[in-house]
Amino acid sequence: MSTLPEVTPDVVPERSGAPTLEWVEVDREVVAWNAEREELHRLDPIASLVFLLCDGVTSVRVTIEELAATFEQPADRIRADVLTLLTGLARDGLVVLR
Questions:
Q1: Residue 16 and residue 24: Cα distance in Å, rounded?
Q2: Residue 87 within a domain
Q3: What is the span of the domain harbouring residue 82?
Q4: 84-92 CB contacts, 8 Å cutoff, 24+ apart
Q5: What does the DSSP assignment read for the chain?
Q6: What is the per-residue pLDDT for 5?
Q7: Rounded to whole angstroms, how far apart are CA atoms 91 and 74?
Q8: Number of domains, the chain
Q9: Is 3 contained in some domain?
Q10: pLDDT at residue 59 in the model
Q11: Which residues of the chain register pLDDT less than 50?
Q12: Is 4 a member of any domain?
């Protein structure tokens, strides 16, 4: 099993392009199927928003800033939650960290 890179504000996450991963957004929630692992993931609306921001261009820092502005919260208050969420998405094979 490979070790995942650490999620830091400078990392640029990207939704996995693996052919065994399919996902769809329904009512602001992402449902993803990882056929290789035989795992189904249902992301809540906030996790779905973070997942959708993983475009391979936007850094974690910018994602945190955008979420802070959207939810009118200080970036420092949500940083740890976003980093933890992205770590889980990477561990589950839904995003790739670059």
A1: 13
A2: yes
A3: 16-97
A4: 85/47, 85/50, 86/7, 86/11, 86/13, 86/50, 86/54, 86/60, 87/4, 87/7, 89/13, 89/47, 89/50, 89/51, 89/54, 90/4, 90/5, 90/7, 90/13, 91/4, 92/34, 92/37, 92/39, 92/41
A5: -PPPPPP-TT--EEE---TTEEEEEETTEEEEEETTTTEEEE--HHHHHHHHH-BSSS-HHHHHHHHHHHTT--HHHHHHHHHHHHHHHHHTTSEEE-
A6: 81
A7: 27
A8: 1
A9: no
A10: 97
A11: none
A12: no
Q: What is the CATH number of the domain that holds 73?
A: 1.10.10.1150
Structure tokens at 56: 């391979």
Instruction: Determine, yes or no, domain membership for 10.
Output: no
